[in-house]
Amino acid sequence: MQVYGYGAISANDTLKPVVFDRKEVRAGEIGFKVIYCGVCHSDVHQVNDDWGNSVYPCVPGHEIIGRVTSIGEGVTKFKQGDLIGVGCMVNSCQQCEECKSDMEQYCTGPKGATLTYNGPTVPDGSNTYGGYSTHMVVREEFAITIPDGMEPEYAGPILCAGVTTYSPMKHWNLQKGQTLGVAGIGGLGHMAVQLGKALGAKVIAFTGHESKRDEILKLGADEVVVTGDENAMQEKAMSIDLLINTIPYPFDLSIFIPLMKKNSSLVMVGNFIEIPKFVPADLVFNRIEVAGSLIGGVKETQEVMNLCAKHGIRPQIEVIGMDRINDVFTKLRGDTTDHAFRHVIDMESLHTEVAGGEPDAESIEQPTRGEVVGA
Ligand SMILES: [Zn+2]
Ligand SMILES: [Zn+2]
């Protein structure tokens, strides 16, 4: 099937209209029309090749909401017309211990989980293309049901920003009445604040920007601390049970360690590259754990989607047309004080562009990364 999208042809390229082929729906898969797609900071990192693993052309997008248009043989969970979501993964081995215990993101199969974009497809190794496109195909296990009462434009960011912060709350067993710290209040952090409150925790938000204080309090945070304010930081000494650090760039972790209680956990979800700076003794004396956590499994993603629907938790969004995508990327590359926490592309803008006659799109192929051994 011929599909239109927006992609980068090489590193640091602006996104341009592209046209490519998607495989037809096979057994166990569903095809859908993309109606909204959130813009995640990872999209910018991947297009920039900030992680050194990007394959081009690169069509990003992993906060995808769509309407089911076709059903493969044997599909039982969905029917035509259903509203669905697809997050960061489209496949995994389904056989390993991790997959069997609903942690597909940590799949230890031959190639691990197949990411929604920039992931080699099993078994042929072709590159995956994401949600900045008119249509997609996914195996039914990786599609999320969008519950009644959840508006489709708000649902996308829950699939990445939501589950990435929810998963550590579940894993480290955040309890009612405990204190959750959230460092960095952007796309991920503003979801973490709301989810922490829904789970009954006291939430302290840490931001570098005094100007964000009122906005963060409106999200439900009990307290807002500006990280540059040493006195305010000191007042929070040994007060936090779980700290989720969403800051997406290298950051001095040592300022947070003194805020942690005994036996507490400081979990990194936003910065993959730099080794955080801290003094091990500060961990040793209070048995503090520094850990990392990657997105969440499919079951957890459905759980957090349902929780958001039930508790009225919504990401703060600004809906944009595809024509504004490069402006948003430029903004995300530089500006960390942006107050619209998540941009969501109204994909009708792309469908309209396509319906208006063949857009001037570059024809691209999905580059193969070699056969996936053992698949
Ligand atoms: Zn993301
Ligand atoms: Zn697996």
Automatic annotation (TrEMBL):
The organism's place on the tree of life at top rank: Bacteria
Cofactor(s) this protein requires: Zn(2+)
Gene Ontology MF: a single term: alcohol dehydrogenase (NADP+) activity
Positions of the Enoyl reductase (ER) domain: 10-345
Keywords associated with the record: Metal-binding, Oxidoreductase, Zinc
Record SUPFAM superfamilies: GroES-like, NAD(P)-binding Rossmann-fold domains
InterPro entries per record: ADH-like_C, ADH-like_N, ADH_Zn_CS, CAD-like, ER, GroES-like_sf, NAD(P)-bd_dom_sf
Annotated stretches, region: Disordered: 354-375
Cross-referenced PROSITE patterns: ADH_ZINC (PS00059)
CDD domains recorded: CAD1 (cd05283)
UniProt record similarity statement: Belongs to the zinc-containing alcohol dehydrogenase family.
Protein name according to UniProt: Putative zinc-type alcohol dehydrogenase-like protein
Organism of this sequence: Neolewinella xylanilytica
